[in-house]
């Protein structure tokens, strides 16, 4: 089966995320791709989150006519694009179900996702979702394979089965060389979930995923090498991996880069990475940036700017920032 694009929006600003969404859909529609997965995170409580705004963005006139269906997942959305082949058929649930019965891999995936999302029969049905996703996965669809593995690993609405989840991740990694699957395999080996713990195998799979640009894998391998508790410490390689992940807007990696430069007493470089994470709404980074403005570390001292960042951090529940903000406003 062909690989379908997966685009990570979760650490971008709202403006950048919407722009990338529109560009990606336009480009893939022109290339006659059938679907795209957008990773958004799952913070529905925040009305300013990418996940909350995504359903509105897909109605933008620039892309609305290209989209056949938008189905919500945990922390992601799957966009199905219209094609010249019977594009109206998938809008009819009866036709979709018949196509799934007839072993159409896309229909099986879409039907499974609709059961998972609750957009079929207006209620979620994880067991029915698993049934159809498995059928699609058995035909080699990488997205279905990953979703089956996720369902079995999480055990929400279905029997939790880490061992079977591991097998599906292995299949996705082996058949499709999927970096998400490789990352999850690495974590399962590292933690001994669904498979006997094997740190060497964990490292091998995590490194494969990191090499393909998976930012969480880069962060995990970086942490393992930086700490030196399981593997021989290699600070230089760890920092290279942190930097690679940070450049992909991985907030945790940006924070680590900031802390690394603080230890090296290079406040200007520390400020660069901490500011990046703060602008991506990390409360820890916002608190640290407030401290740097308050103390004049790496930047001209500016108490008003410091207060601004302390307040932004406090609004997200950061304890120390809340104490400082309360003291300054009373």
UniProtKB/TrEMBL annotation:
<comment type="similarity">
    <text>Belongs to the sel-1 family.</text>
</comment>
<dbReference type="Pfam" id="PF08238">
    <property type="entry name" value="Sel1"/>
</dbReference>
<dbReference type="InterPro" id="IPR011990">
    <property type="entry name" value="TPR-like_helical_dom_sf"/>
</dbReference>
<protein>
    <submittedName>
        <fullName>Sel1 repeat family protein</fullName>
    </submittedName>
</protein>
<dbReference type="InterPro" id="IPR006597">
    <property type="entry name" value="Sel1-like"/>
</dbReference>
<dbReference type="InterPro" id="IPR050767">
    <property type="entry name" value="Sel1_AlgK"/>
</dbReference>
């Amino acid at each position: 089966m062909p690989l379908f694009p997966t685009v990570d929006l979760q650490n971008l600003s709202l403006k950048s995320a919407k722009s990338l969404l529109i560009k990606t859909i336009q480009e893939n529609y022109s290339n006659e791709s059938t679907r795209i997965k957008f990773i958004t995170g799952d913070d529905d409580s925040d009305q300013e989150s990418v996940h909350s705004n995504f359903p509105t963005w897909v109605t933008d006139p620039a892309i609305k006519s290209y989209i056949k269906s938008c189905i919500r997942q945990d922390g992601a959305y799957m966009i199905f694009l219209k094609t010249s082949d019977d594009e109206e058929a998938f809008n009819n649930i009866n036709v979709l179900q018949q196509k799934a019965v007839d072993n159409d891999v896309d229909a099986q995936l879409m039907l499974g996702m609709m059961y998972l999302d609750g957009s079929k029969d207006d209620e979620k049905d994880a067991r029915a979702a698993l049934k159809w996703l498995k059928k699609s996965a058995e035909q080699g669809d990488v997205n279905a394979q990953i979703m089956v593995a996720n369902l079995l690993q999480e055990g929400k609405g279905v029997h939790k089965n880490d061992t079977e989840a591991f097998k599906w991740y292995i299949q996705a990694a082996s058949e499709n060389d999927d970096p998400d699957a490789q990352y999850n395999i690495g974590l399962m080996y590292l933690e001994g979930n669904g498979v006997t713990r094997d740190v060497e195998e964990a490292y091998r799979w995590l490194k494969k995923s990191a090499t393909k640009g998976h930012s969480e894998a880069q962060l995990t391998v970086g942490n393992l090498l930086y700490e030196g508790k399981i593997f021989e410490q290699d600070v230089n390689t760890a920092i290279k991996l942190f930097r690679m992940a940070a450049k992909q807007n991985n907030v945790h990696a940006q924070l680590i880069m900031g802390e690394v430069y603080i230890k090296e007493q290079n406040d200007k470089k520390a400020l660069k990475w901490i500011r990046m994470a703060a602008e991506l709404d990390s409360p820890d980074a916002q608190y640290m940036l407030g401290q740097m403005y308050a103390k004049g570390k790496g930047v001209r001292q500016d108490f008003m700017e410091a207060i601004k960042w302390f307040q932004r951090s406090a609004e997200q529940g950061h304890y120390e920032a809340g104490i400082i903000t309360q003291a300054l406003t009373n």
